[in-house]
Design brief:
Layout lengths: L2 H10 L10 E2 L2 E2 L6 H18 L7 H12 L4 H4 L6 H16 L1 E2 L2 E2 L6 H4 L13 H18 L4 H10 L16 H8 L1 H7 L45
Antiparallel strand pairs: 1-2, 3-4
Helix pairs in contact: 2-5, 7-9
Length: about 240
């Protein structure tokens, strides 16, 4: 807002002090439309932190602990709110891979295996490093589940009234002017939809042929086609 408006509001609220752009839990307090402003500093922070560590003095186990407990944890809060660009995830993976394999004479040493293989589970031959893209989707999916199961939360009410006041969360469209937070949550919608099932209750709000309500079914939907002349629409019509 304009400077005059800021001063007027500050005086009306008891001469509170105006603050400039800052951060809260690692996130910028003012989110702009610039992806570089929002996501760029994550890569910079990880890169600066890795430069402080003397990887020549660490064993492979020491590097593994530092990457998993520090580098991979730093963007966690950001990934629980926003969908990180694929390019950024690749750049962060590249930074960590270079740190893992080390450098000599100012050049990165040869990478004897890809980072994707190192991100596999121990049982499948990997080292258990997190796949940032999958981890990001999982964190966003957790937030989606929270919105679905706790509709009385303030954030749930705000997002529902803003983006799908009359439609289901799984059927609403994503407007072009939607916030990055909402677009990120929509990126995890498909993942949640595969596993979510409706509670029947009295069955008056569950559609027989369209909703996912069968627990032991892969898709949760009725597999048979709707017979011709069938007038059954809601599950409550099947309850005797």
């Amino acid at each position: 807002m304009e400077q005059e408006t800021k001063v007027e509001i500050s005086q009306a609220l008891g001469n509170i002090q105006m603050v400039s752009q800052g951060k809260y839990l690692g996130l910028p307090m003012v989110v702009t439309r610039s992806k570089q402003q929002l996501f760029g500093y994550i890569k910079d922070i990880i890169q600066q932190r890795l430069k402080r560590w003397k990887n020549k003095l660490l064993s492979a186990a020491g590097k593994e602990v530092e990457l998993k407990s520090v580098a991979l944890v730093m963007p966690t809060y950001m990934m629980s709110c926003f969908k990180l660009p694929k390019k950024l995830c690749k750049e962060i993976n590249s930074i960590m891979a270079n740190y893992w394999w080390g450098e000599g004479n100012g050049k990165n040493k040869m990478h004897w295996t890809s980072w994707s293989k190192m991100s596999l589970d121990w049982k499948t031959g990997g080292l258990g490093f997190k796949d940032l893209g999958a981890f990001n989707t999982a964190l966003l999916g957790k937030q989606v589940w929270r919105l679905l199961t706790q509709p009385n939360l303030l954030v749930s009410k705000v997002l529902t009234n803003r983006y799908h006041p009359k439609e289901s969360f799984f059927k609403c469209k994503v407007p072009e002017n939607a916030s990055w937070i909402w677009k990120g949550l929509m990126g995890a919608r498909q993942l949640i939809e595969k596993g979510v099932r409706r509670r029947i209750g009295n069955g008056k709000s569950t559609k027989i042929w369209e909703d996912s309500w069968i627990p032991d079914n892969h898709q949760g939907k009725v597999t048979t086609h709707k017979p011709q002349g069938c007038n059954l629409v809601k599950v409550d019509e099947m309850i005797i």
